[in-house]
Design brief:
Strand order of the largest sheet of chain A: 11-10-14-12-13
Helix content of chain B: 40-55%
Oligomer: heterodimer
CATH architecture of the largest domain in chain B: Orthogonal Bundle
Distance between the termini of chain B: 43 Å
Number of domains of chain A: 4
Largest interface: A-B, 67 and 53 residues
Structural class of chain A: alpha/beta
Strand content of chain B: 5-15%
Structural class of chain B: alpha+beta
Strand content of chain A: 5-15%
Distance between the termini of chain A: 39 Å
Shape of chain B: elongated
CATH class of the largest domain in chain B: Mainly Alpha
Shape of chain A: globular
Strand order of the largest sheet of chain B: 2-1-3-4
Number of domains of chain B: 2
CATH architecture of the largest domain in chain A: 3-Layer(aba) Sandwich
Largest sheet of chain B: 4 strands, mixed
């Protein structure tokens, strides 16, 4: 059974307790193992029973279902209305290409033995026998691009850090996963924390960095506990410390907590925050790879980017590169969320279309109503109408339709959505989360809310719309970072594709703040 | 490894009477002593103070500033920048209600209105009985199972109004 926060949020803890209690009552011997989530989130709490044929899935299993499952002989894989056959054969899972998430949901996240049994630390083994430049070359060859959202080639960052001499270099993992509609970082950190640690050690070996930080958002207490326990295990087992596995190479790392600022997902704000300051964006250049944390050369990569490194080193660059399309190589853990019947995590090579994801995987909306809009790429991503659902998931294809893939989050809305309210929220969110350093973002977002309110109130609507578009132009070109620079995406896409919602008065809405 | 760089700023020792009681003061000083050599110590220190006391009292600012050799403005600036830090004492339980898009698509706006009406408070406020402080949060990473909220460290998904009432009743009944 999963110990993942999402599974716990719908009762996995109660279900686990009920299974143990019922087993004791019936004198049935049960060994309950806690793993991460398989990512079939609509089936959570998912109970898997190990049988000779493989793991059999039951879900969603609530505490009240447990006696019935025992009656049906589920401990031997017995038939039941909640049974889904072998987990690995569930089409949603079977059709995936799990590279980064290969172990998530399978292993006990805190078991080093489980981790090694399923291929863990093989990438590190390979890296320890390679010169730093060869590790960087392997990463460059794999075509891996930053999975945090900006999609910058990871190999180039690493190469710059390797080439910049300094007494102290750093590896920083950006685990400030703030985009609504995303949870792949969280699932990975809770479900397979060792793979992230392994990726960071390899990054250290490749670039000469000996110190690492995982900057984790404080909204993820389960991930914090999982990471801290896994780091302690690695320190006690010689994977972290002054002499990694007797190689004479040093690397150690720690978790640092954010404090509820969305902007700290932006890499230079994150570095400011790590240094103990307000999370305000830095001017670039210098790039963090040249002068990053405490002014030293710093690799700063997202969780999924770093967690993809071990398998690339283990299987080789060509294997990873063999997945994907165009310049988007490898796999993307897609998070299907919002008003969706079968929400979950889908790791697949780039190239699936939104339509396949929403309907074939997702099964349409949870409410049963038609899909009206989909927001891809978090709060700074565009709202896409049905006419764009055939766009393949590929960084360049999304850029062409003025959208972005970002961190791979897809939020589905049904036809009850008020797109003018969503546009207003995008500006409001920008106002709440702006770091305040540049004027277009700090002031423009507040003015944006006001202009949208006037537009919706019908005060000289044409004039307000022109003003809103002009303001978006200023935000796009005048902002220092992506927060101000991309807030126009959700606003303008709502305005362009769902214009009808802007020409009726907003229902009275309590201003939340 | 860099430690906090020497500053020209002269940290001012607190002179006006402090509202801190002795255990609070001891907790803050203990945290500072334990963490002041940490590179970039300010956020870890503020987190540790908040974990110990439930909030970061205003009068903690001069103590922290002095220990880390920072100005009052630097500490106050950081404290007020980050949404997570609180300067006012919260209720016995913290409820973080998600306002972000994925939860909006499954009724978070309605749940927010229901929560405020039924608790009789707005965001950042505490119920009259001191049981619950309500805070907004922008994503809890539970976007396929929304609407979501977190009570203290416990995450809850698919929160209906009925489930909300149950969770509130449970929180109010617990110390």
């Amino acid at each position: 059974m999963p110990c993942d926060a999402a599974a716990l949020s719908v009762g996995a803890g109660e279900t686990a307790a009920a299974i143990l209690a019922e087993a004791a009552r019936r004198h049935v011997e049960v060994e309950l193992k806690r793993n991460g989530s398989r990512g079939l989130l609509w089936l959570e709490p998912l109970v898997e029973v190990a049988t000779d044929r493989g793991r059999v899935a039951y879900g969603p299993v609530h505490a009240a279902d447990v006696p019935g499952l025992f009656d049906a002989g589920f401990t031997d894989g017995g038939a039941h209305a909640l049974a889904h056959g072998l987990t690995a054969e569930i089409p949603y899972l079977r059709s995936q290409e799990r590279l980064t998430f290969a172990r998530v949901g399978l292993i006990d996240p805190q078991s080093l033995d489980d981790y090694r049994e399923y291929g863990g630390f093989r990438g590190l083994g390979a890296a320890l026998s390679m010169p730093p430049a060869a590790i960087v070359e392997c990463l460059t060859e794999s075509g891996l691009r930053g999975r945090g959202g900006a999609a910058f080639p990871a190999g180039i960052k690493w190469k710059t850090v390797l080439a910049t001499p300094a007494a102290q270099k750093y590896i920083v993992c950006n685990a400030d996963e703030g985009d609504s509609g995303t949870y792949s970082d969280r699932m990975l950190m809770e479900g397979d924390p060792f793979v992230l640690i392994e990726g960071m050690i390899i990054a250290g070996l490749a670039t000469g960095a000996t110190r690492g930080y995982i900057y984790l958002r404080c909204e993820y207490p389960h991930a914090r506990r999982a990471l801290q326990a896994a780091i302690a295990t690695c320190q006690a087992s010689g994977y972290l410390g002054a002499d990694i596995l007797g190689s004479g190479r040093a690397f150690d790392l720690e978790v640092r907590l954010g404090a509820g600022a969305y902007i700290c997902g932006e890499e230079t704000s994150l570095l400011e925050s790590l240094e103990g300051r307000r999370g305000q964006v830095r001017f670039k250049p210098p790039l963090p790879a040249v002068a990053g944390l405490f002014g030293q050369p710093t690799v700063i990569n997202n969780v999924i980017t770093l967690a993809s490194v071990p398998i690339i080193l283990d299987r080789g660059a060509a294997h990873y590169r063999g997945f994907g399309m165009g310049r988007s190589r490898g796999t993307l853990p897609i998070q299907l969320t919002g008003n969706i019947r079968q929400g979950g995590l889908i790791e697949k090579a780039f190239g699936l279309t939104l339509r396949e994801l929403i309907y074939d995987y997702g099964g349409g909306t949870l409410s049963g109503r038609p899909v009206r809009a989909v927001q891809v790429g978090g709060p700074l991503g565009a709202y896409l109408p049905e006419s764009q659902f055939d766009t393949p998931l590929d960084y360049e294809a999304f850029a062409q339709i003025k959208g972005m893939l970002g961190h791979g989050g897809i939020v589905v809305f049904d036809d009850s959505v008020d797109m003018a309210a969503q546009a207003r929220y995008a500006m409001e969110f920008c106002a709440i989360e702006s770091c305040g350093k540049c004027t277009p973002c700090r002031i423009g977002s507040t003015r944006g809310v006001e202009v949208i309110d006037r537009l919706l109130a019908g005060e000289q609507a044409a004039k307000q719309e022109a003003l809103l578009r002009d303001l978006c132009e200023t935000l796009t070109h005048g902002s220092l970072c992506a927060l101000g620079g991309l807030t126009p995406y959700p606003v303008l896409s709502a305005l362009d594709h769902f214009a009808e919602d802007f020409h009726k008065p907003l229902p009275a809405r309590a201003r939340a703040e | 490894m860099p430690t906090n760089p020497p500053r020209r700023v002269i940290a001012i020792k607190p002179e006006r009477p402090s509202t801190l009681d002795a255990p609070q003061r001891a907790a803050i000083e203990g945290v500072c002593a334990r963490l002041q050599a940490t590179p970039g110590a300010l956020l870890p220190v503020l987190h540790a103070v908040q974990d110990a006391l439930g909030f970061v009292p205003k009068d903690a600012v001069p103590l922290v500033a002095h220990a880390l050799n920072l100005s009052l403005a630097e500490v106050h600036g950081v404290l007020s920048f980050y949404h997570w830090f609180r300067s006012r004492e919260p209720g016995r339980h913290l409820m973080h209600l998600c306002r972000a898009e994925a939860c909006q698509s499954v009724g978070a706006v309605q749940l927010e209105a229901y929560a405020k009406r039924n608790l009789g408070i707005g965001f950042h406020d505490t119920t009259a009985d001191g049981a619950i402080t309500l805070e907004p949060v922008y994503c809890l990473g539970n976007c396929a199972l929304g609407p979501s909220l977190m009570i203290d460290d416990e995450l809850h998904g698919r929160v209906t109004t009925r489930r909300f009432d149950e969770l509130v009743a449970r929180a109010k009944a617990s110390p």
